[in-house]
């Protein structure tokens, strides 16, 4: 994907360390961060300078390669990176891919690069498979950011949107703001704007209303971990969108690479849900009049707050999971097939109505 006309990935390896687009300062500023040590890589993940399940897997993989090059103890590096965030399984998939390459620094870097490239290829394939769900002017509702900032080069939920746009289908995207970190408002709206895709930002509470009024053809989100039975964890607020979609006969799809599937997690109830600092709920961060990041308090001093970062959508509410090998059912059989399967050749039958942006 391009930023200011330049091909850019959300994170990449350099001789100095791991470089990344600092997602904390978007959309105000495009700033490149540099993590020179394992600790700095871990902090970039924890502070959400880099975020999104597939991206943190890639960055963790490069972090472990960095440890080998710097002569940092491999086991300690693995442990430090593994405890940065608890929900997205991609984190450990990235670490394991590098660890499996053996102790050599060259081999570890090659494994991290291969893991990165495989995620790019998977995202591109997700876009191709998801394109079957689109007609001219399909109105998608998405939540959080599952675009190329979260998943190298294409995104997951946004990959089919970008493919549809390139195919001239003029997709339209409702972007829910995604409190408390506002990934929708800050990141998805920015990405779609850069790519010239028509979109409109809505308050989180407006999503069910738009679905009820027939203004959404398709709900499409990413995932941070998919359990063996097809239940899927994604950004807090995803479950309520899936419930509203089911109530009004609108299909709800998840888009995710197979690195997001965790067969060792049997059901959604077993997924660890990250709880972040309550201060993220008690405050709002944005840009001041001068375009500088600023944080303001929105609740009375002393208000207790709770900040679960993810929720779980049961497989029964998911019309299908768009993976790099095709669209699979969100069931135990579908997940088992996806993990063992080769590319599926049949295309999904879209259950969306077509329509123009409204
Ligand atoms: O807390 P984040 O921003 O890392 O969470 C990311 C999400 O939940 C995204 O919605 C997502 O779909 C997973 S990344 C494609």
Automatic annotation (TrEMBL):
<dbReference type="GO" id="GO:0046523">
    <property type="term" value="F:S-methyl-5-thioribose-1-phosphate isomerase activity"/>
</dbReference>
<feature type="active site" description="Proton donor">
    <location>
        <position position="224"/>
    </location>
</feature>
<keyword id="KW-0028">Amino-acid biosynthesis</keyword>
<comment type="function">
    <text>Catalyzes the interconversion of methylthioribose-1-phosphate (MTR-1-P) into methylthioribulose-1-phosphate (MTRu-1-P).</text>
</comment>
<feature type="binding site">
    <location>
        <position position="85"/>
    </location>
    <ligand>
        <name>substrate</name>
    </ligand>
</feature>
<dbReference type="InterPro" id="IPR005251">
    <property type="entry name" value="IF-M1Pi"/>
</dbReference>
<feature type="binding site">
    <location>
        <begin position="51"/>
        <end position="53"/>
    </location>
    <ligand>
        <name>substrate</name>
    </ligand>
</feature>
<feature type="binding site">
    <location>
        <begin position="234"/>
        <end position="235"/>
    </location>
    <ligand>
        <name>substrate</name>
    </ligand>
</feature>
<dbReference type="InterPro" id="IPR027363">
    <property type="entry name" value="M1Pi_N"/>
</dbReference>
<keyword id="KW-0486">Methionine biosynthesis</keyword>
<dbReference type="InterPro" id="IPR011559">
    <property type="entry name" value="Initiation_fac_2B_a/b/d"/>
</dbReference>
<feature type="binding site">
    <location>
        <position position="183"/>
    </location>
    <ligand>
        <name>substrate</name>
    </ligand>
</feature>
<comment type="pathway">
    <text>Amino-acid biosynthesis; L-methionine biosynthesis via salvage pathway; L-methionine from S-methyl-5-thio-alpha-D-ribose 1-phosphate: step 1/6.</text>
</comment>
<keyword id="KW-0413">Isomerase</keyword>
<dbReference type="InterPro" id="IPR042529">
    <property type="entry name" value="IF_2B-like_C"/>
</dbReference>
<feature type="site" description="Transition state stabilizer">
    <location>
        <position position="144"/>
    </location>
</feature>
<protein>
    <recommendedName>
        <fullName>Methylthioribose-1-phosphate isomerase</fullName>
        <ecNumber>5.3.1.23</ecNumber>
    </recommendedName>
</protein>
<dbReference type="InterPro" id="IPR000649">
    <property type="entry name" value="IF-2B-related"/>
</dbReference>
<comment type="similarity">
    <text>Belongs to the EIF-2B alpha/beta/delta subunits family. MtnA subfamily.</text>
</comment>
<dbReference type="GO" id="GO:0019509">
    <property type="term" value="P:L-methionine salvage from methylthioadenosine"/>
</dbReference>
<dbReference type="InterPro" id="IPR037171">
    <property type="entry name" value="NagB/RpiA_transferase-like"/>
</dbReference>
<dbReference type="Pfam" id="PF01008">
    <property type="entry name" value="IF-2B"/>
</dbReference>
